[in-house]
Design a protein that fits this description.
Length: about 180
């Protein structure tokens, strides 16, 4: 029997967030950028962007799950101390790298929460593009290379595609 997932509340909440540009040193950033954009980096096809995607929506994206269910799920995890050492983490929940293919016009994906309990999230942008993260209060955080967005990812938010480059890439980290 499949469990029905409850759609997040649409109540608009004032979203507290922090944007940090140049989150990593240029050398540290270039390491991640090179690894994630190289030809042999393994991407995995996902037919659903989130659990609240409309059934007729044909959107998809590519992911690389790095850490989940208290264990590393990728050899790439060993490189994440560069990022994790800069964050006050009591418990790591998930690290996922996202790749959204470009589209002819920007598509805002369904509103979602990363997990249905209070936790923190970071979206770390790998490339500049016209895509963005839309927070519940209407705030748009543009995707900018080496930018970290710190926010409560248990509050509904939305991802988007991009139009001006081949793909929008970011790293999604959830933690307590």
């Amino acid at each position: 029997m499949k469990t029905k997932i409850k759609k997040p509340s649409i109540e608009i909440k004032k979203v507290e967030y922090k944007v940090v540009d140049n989150f990593l040193s240029e050398e540290e950033f270039k390491f991640f950028e090179k690894k994630i954009t190289e030809h042999a980096f393994p991407w995995y096809f996902n037919t659903r962007l989130n659990d609240f995607q409309d059934k007729i929506d044909q959107s998809f994206y590519l992911t690389h799950l790095v850490y989940y269910n208290s264990v590393p799920t990728s050899d790439f995890f060993k490189n994440f101390n560069i990022i994790l050492d800069k964050i006050d983490i009591k418990s790591l929940i998930r690290i996922k790298i996202n790749c959204y293919p470009s589209s002819h016009k920007i598509r805002e994906h369904s509103s979602h929460v990363d997990y249905p309990f209070k936790h923190k999230g970071i979206l770390f942008s790998i490339n500049d593009c016209d895509g963005y993260t839309l927070l519940n209060d209407g705030t748009k955080i543009k995707s900018k290379r080496n930018r970290a967005l710190f926010f409560d990812s248990s509050i509904p938010h939305q991802s988007t595609t991009c139009t001006n480059v081949q793909r929008r890439m970011n790293i999604n980290i959830n933690y307590l």
